[in-house]
Here is the input.
Amino acid sequence: MGDEVRVKVITPGEAAIEGILPRKTQLERPPVANADQAVLVTTVRDPESSLLTLDRLLVQAIYQGLAALICLNKVDLLAAGGADGYLAPYRRAGFRTVATSATTGQGIAELRQELAGVISVLAGESGVGKSSLLNALRPGLALRTGNLGATGRGRHTTRHLELLEVSEHGLVADTPGLSLVSLPAMPPGRLAAYWPELAELAPDCRFRTCVHRQEPGCRVRAARGSGELDQGRYERYLSLLREVELADRRY
Ligand SMILES: Nc1nc2c(ncn2[C@@H]2O[C@H](COP(=O)(O)OP(=O)(O)OP(=O)(O)O)[C@@H](O)[C@H]2O)c(=O)[nH]1
Ligand SMILES: [Mg+2]
Ligand SMILES: [Zn+2]
Here is the structure.
């Protein structure tokens, strides 16, 4: 899905596909070709989606060469200022963010702008409102949405993949919620390259091989100590670093 093809017009109204053009990007899960952007949908409540999942998705998006947009949905369930507090560390790291409510329509116009002219894939845990956002972007679409189960989590309502036009020249793939996402295999020393605020500091670490855990002369740890770096983001980096290291050993 998402391939660009060469078409030969035979008669007006009749054409044949001659070939598939080279792909800019190629995602396996979801299987979408030529996506430009990943829209990572998260929520603070109902369900409380995990920041570790968000950070994992960000690494994957950057790794695959996609631009990342963080969409905090269900802001109608938050107190005033709640969305800003949640998104601030990400904005400081340089990510584009948007706060939305599929229910009240807040932020939908802004989201639509962010989707214009590019192919986007939506990703995020089940129940965060991916299909609901598309319905809000394109009234009349009526994609099926699901209630949260007794456990307060989503029920994987969306089971297939579809590319939808929701904005001027903007296509979006609604995708089933991700249940398990493992990071791509990489040398542990690479992980920080997919963590913008770490990548920016890393050149100033004493050692080129620094993984920013306990090496002397680590600029990242100094930044953490001074509050320059968000504590939570740094801790989640360490968890994912551990994961990458464990996976790396099997290779
Ligand atoms: N309060 C509130 N509820 C919302 C909002 N957006 C979606 N919901 C509700 O959240 C539930 C899940 O929404 P879906 O759109 O099905 O979620 P999804 O991310 O597509 O889930 P999967 O298809 O399972 O991955 C539904 O009951 C929606 O009505 C919102 O902005 N605010
Ligand atoms: Mg859905
Ligand atoms: Zn370092």
